[in-house]
Design a protein that fits this description.
Blueprint (H helix, E strand, L loop, with lengths): L5 H30 L3 H10 L6 H18 L7 H22 L2 H7 L5
Length: 115
């Protein structure tokens, strides 16, 4: 059996952390996707037995914490734009949408149309 070249042996220790870092970033993206999806709402409504009114605030807060994590931990820096876009979608869909639907412009726009 041949022995590994010294060049390969010198590169091996740095290759392992790079693979571990990539796996950590991918895992963080998956966990964040599940956290910011409707899955927590389904689980919370099943466990608590009804409507959970604080989920919109929890989602926006979780997105803000994930964005903050990208500034505090350099490993998550590649996910900053992804977390920002997810947070913006949550903000627009869960916080601003109900406010927009209550404006006189919106009610006048959809008045008389069947739902």
């Amino acid at each position: 059996m041949t022995e590994p070249s010294p060049d390969l042996a010198a590169r091996a220790p740095t290759a392992v952390p790079a693979v571990g870092r990539r796996a950590l970033v991918i895992s963080a993206a998956w966990v964040a996707t599940l956290l910011l999806s409707k899955l927590p709402l389904v689980i919370a409504s099943d466990l608590l037995g009804g409507d959970v009114p604080w989920t919109a605030a929890a989602w926006v807060g979780a997105a803000a914490l994930l964005i903050a994590a990208t500034y505090l931990w350099s490993t998550f820096r590649p996910l900053r734009l992804y977390f920002s876009i997810m947070g913006l979608i949550l903000l627009l869909g869960d916080v601003l949408d109900p406010l927009i639907r209550q404006t006189p412009f919106w009610t006048g726009l959809v008045a008389g149309r069947p739902h």
